[in-house]
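Format notes (please read before filing issues)

Several people have asked whether sequences and structure tokens are stored in separate files. They are not. Every record keeps both together, in the order shown below: the sequence lines, then the token lines. Line labels are part of the format and must not be stripped during preprocessing.
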Amino acid sequence: MSAVSLERKPLITRDLNKFELEIANLMQKIEVEKSHKSDFEIRQENDKKKAESKVFSESDLDQAAQQTAQDFLDLSTEELQHFKQASRVGGDQENNYRTTKRALDRNLLLLVSEKVGDKEMWILPQGKRKEGETLRDTAERVLKDKCGNLLKAKFLGNAPCGFYKYKYPKAKQGETMGAKIFFFKAQILDGNVELNGGPCQDFHWATRREMEKLPHEYLKAIRLFLIDEEH
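Then the structure lines:
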């Protein structure tokens, strides 16, 4: 069997933690102390000297009608007061688990809800290999079969990034004792999952914390090839 680990990578950087913030402030302080004066600072000093000297040439009188450094600072300060930063979260989309426009600073992993045996479970999109297919061929087909044609993804390599094996219940064991699932990594490029009454009953773009809904041993196998991040 093949399964697809489809991710949406972070769209913005995460907020700095306490330690990172202390380092950033220290580096900013050092940069300010050791940096050369900017053109604006030099312009301010020149304007101040001219105002204090009370001796103006014709060129100074011409420049007086132009914008001074203080005028520029006042206008910039006023503009800054009206500036509002864009939200770092998904706004009203944040609690919509079917959209990729949430948790913008986190990795999101696609989980689908399917009936496995007699149980409804959250898993990665997966399916059995058909005759003549490579494992990657199966992974690409499974993603289309389970999630529809609107979802565009880029597969990262031809080889599996991990695997998970399990035993069938004794009542269903025949010539084979169990199955092995090979995972392939991919990243979403565009689109989203189509439900349309297909095999996928529901889906969830999950953060690392929300992946806890996966079966425990299955989750352990997946975490081996995912880049971890702080909660």
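For reference, the curators noted about this record: The chain has two domains: 2-13+95-223, 18-81. Residues 18-81 form one domain.
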